[in-house]
Amino acid sequence: MDFLRKTLNKIKPHFSEGGKLEKLHPAYDAFETFLFVPDHTTSSKCHVRDSIDLKRTMGTIILALLPCLIFGCYNIGYQYYLQFDPGFISGNFFSFFNLFLYGLIKVTPMIIVSYGVGLSIEFAFAVFRGHQVNEGYLVTGMLIPLIFPIDCPLWIVALSVIFAVVIGKEVFGGTGMNILNPALLARGFAFFAYPTKLSGDKVWVSDGYTDAISGETALGELATLVKDNVPTEQVNNVLSNFSTEGSYSLMNSFLGFIPGSIGETSVLAVLIGASILLMTGLGSWRIMFSALLGGFFMASIFKLWGANPFMDLNPIHQLCIGGFMFAIVFMATDPVSAAQTNTGKLIYGFLCGFLGIMIRVFNPAYPEGIMLAILFMNVMAPLIDHYVVESSIKRRMNRINI
Amino acid sequence: MKNSLLSKKNRKLLSDPLGDQNPITIQVLGICSALAITVQLQQALVMSMSVVFVMVCGNMIISALRNVIPSRIRIIVQLVVVSSLVVFVDQVLQAFLPDVQEKLSVFIGLIVSNCIIMGRLEAFALGNTLWPSFLDGIGNAVGYGWILLAVAFFRELFGSGKLFGYQVFPDAWYEAGGGFYLNNNLMILPPMALIVVGVIIWVQRSRKSFPEELLEEN
């Protein structure tokens, strides 16, 4: 520690005003505050300082993401070995560790690419614009690998990160100014730009795909039923996968032993993360609760409607498959792009869940409807806030007597 | 006082719309067609050339007639002139480039309602003599055209790996040929045209200042 402090102090003059490397001061600043608690004091009029700064917020959210990441790694190994040798997956610790390690080796490059590319852009913009490097990317950088399929090529991940950070964030002025959630924007970009790598039945199980087992996500399987004249045999075949013994049974979907994006499969892991967010107060319970309600409401309507086997799925089961839970806990609650007012949050969350389920059932080409729903609601959030504030003003205006 | 043919003022008429007063990036006019027909360079080129023709001829005709057009019906006269020119372009394309015409289809017809053309007729040709109107027409149409071509260049290159229909990236790069590369499908969708135009505007504004700020200073 002492050594680090001394080194930093030694090179500090170079980066301060008048020094040789003055232009790189934001980079130096970022490293210094990363390593040591900054000695910044308030300079303007407001003197209330909270100990929870951006860095600690981001750190806590990453902590909340860890269960998803750890289970995701395990599930990748599990899906991989399942296709060759179901016998390998016995209950002992050794095989658990093996599966986890396999997944970790597959996921690590994606995380490195995501952070490497994203942080370089943030650094470049900070140096160019001469402001401090923000910690805003730390969470986005972890979310992006978690919502990509494991077999997605790294250059696509890198390109999506570039798009999300530059077009989604820096254009609007950097951290805290973005209209859309950058992580979802990255996935949206990749989804539309390279559909063959982001959907279908070849990308969800890490390489060595065999025909013996379906590598399709639960949503992809169900989507095949939303057509005219599907043979009854096929319908029964798919539906048997969703019964209690099938590979997409409610239990499997809840625990997460199904193919899917890296971090999204396990509802249990997401709930652990959600509880951390709620306990620390970093995620809005209003958004999570109302989104869950919205999704359940729509799924129940579909259940009553029952026009095709996809709609006929049990509402609880409907919410457990796909990225729905992950998205409403970690994406919809993004404090920057969500609605700001309390009533607004309830409306925003409800519509996120409602539209998410609606899109995925009505348009089988977009199985991850929740992604599109949240991006759409991000755009609508300021409008919701506007009307909430307006109506509040109106209500109060009626009360005053002049 | 008579200006020489290429006096400083006249040269400004020609060069301003290419950069500082570009109809697309500064005035943000005519972007509907910029979004619709920039998937391929060939379409963009044909479209730009059509607009150059309609714009230059329209500007000159209106400028020649400016003293006899009653101001009450000037919009109708402008429309008649522009639509006859557009019909002419459409017929020529149908005769000589039927396949491109088919792809551009309705957008050639929509040149009539291109705000850049109506804007220049109304704002410039009606009040200026033949030669400046000619220069202004070329300047604005080429200013529109080069943005179109720039957008189409990126969209065709990354969207389908081609330029003017010729394969640029070797087949070996593509997954089917054992490579790693994939075309970016988003480039073919209209939203990407908007983003590419946006990035061009961004680059332009970060090099020069914001036109809005200039207005306030004046």
Task: Please describe the structure with a list of short key phrases separated by commas or semicolons.
heterodimer, A: 402 residues, mainly alpha, 0% strand, globular, B: 218 residues, two-stranded antiparallel sheet
Could you walk me through the main structural features you see in this protein, from its secondary elements to its overall organization?
Chain A is mainly α. Chain A has helices at 2-15, 25-35, 54-84, 93-129, 137-146, 154-168, 182-193, 195-198, 218-223, 232-241, 250-255, 267-280, 285-305, 315-320, 324-331, 342-362, 369-399. The longest helix of chain A is centred in the N-terminal third of the chain and has 37 residues, at 93-129. Chain B has one domain. Chain B is 63% helix and 2% strand. Chain B has ten helices and two strands. Chain B has a two-stranded antiparallel ribbon. In chain B, helix 1 (8-15) runs parallel beside helix 8 (130-160), helix 4 packs across helix 7 and helix 8 crosses helix 9. Chain B starts with 7 loop residues before the first helix and ends with a helix. Classes of the chains: A mainly alpha (402), B mainly alpha (218). The interface between A and B is small, with 12 and 11 residues.
Ranges of chain A with pLDDT <50 over ≥5 residues? none
First and last CA, distance of chain A: 65 Å
Distance between the termini of chain B: 27 Å
Spatial extent as radius of gyration of chain A:
23 Å
**Within the largest sheet of chain B, what's the order of strands?**
1-2
Q: Strand content of the residues of chain A, in percent?
A: under 5%
Task: Report the largest inter-chain contact.
Answer: A-B, 12 and 11 residues
State the order of secondary-structure elements of chain B, H for helix, E for strand: HHHHHHHHEEHH
Radius of gyration of chain B from CA coordinates: 19 Å
Sheet having the most strands of chain B:
2 strands, antiparallel
Task: Give the helix level of chain B as a range of percent.
Answer: 55-70%
Q: How much β-strand is present in the residues of chain B? A: under 5%
The domain tally of chain B reads 1
- The low-confidence parts of chain B are none
**Tally of contiguous helical segments of chain B:** 10
Overall pLDDT score of chain A = 84
Structural class of chain A: mainly alpha
The helix/strand class of chain B is mainly alpha
